[in-house]
């Protein structure tokens, strides 16, 4: 699996997913973040950790979908999990890979 070509490719992917979820993005940033992979605000601002750019694209999709779902589901309950599965399939495998990747990067 390949990693992202650059910041612009990653941002374009975020916007593709945002259209699918009908999320209006008012600000989109890829920047250094110390303690998390991404964050979102109720105002429509999304920030993603720039370390994602060196990871495989499917892991980036996991983080993107995870974050965008929080615009409609603010927690990680049953609905959020079922939506993750609907969009990414067996997302738990991606989640496990993400945790392993985090240990290597940090």
How many domains would you count in the coordinates? 1
Structural class: alpha+beta
Strand content: 5-15%
Runs in which pLDDT lies below 50 for 5 or more consecutive residues are none
Put simply, the count of helices is 4
Instruction: Specify the helix fraction band.
Output: 40-55%
Topology-level CATH name: Zincin-like
By CATH, the architecture is named: 2-Layer Sandwich
Distance between the termini: 21 Å
In CATH terms, the superfamily is Metalloproteases ("zincins"), catalytic domain
CATH class wording = Alpha Beta
The count of strands amounts to 3
Describe what this molecule looks like in 3D.
- This protein has 106 residues and is of the alpha+beta class.
- It has one domain (7-105): Metalloproteases ("zincins"), catalytic domain (Zincin-like, 2-Layer Sandwich).
- Helix content is 51%, strand content 12%.
- It contains four helices and three strands; from the N terminus they run H-E-E-E-H-H-H.
- The chain has helices at residues 7-21, 57-69, 78-88, 91-105; strands at 27-31, 38-40, 45-49.
- The chain has a three-stranded mixed beta sheet, with helices on one face.
- Strand 2 and strand 3 (45-49) form a beta hairpin.
- Helix 1 packs across helix 2 and helix 2 (57-69) runs antiparallel to helix 3 (78-88).
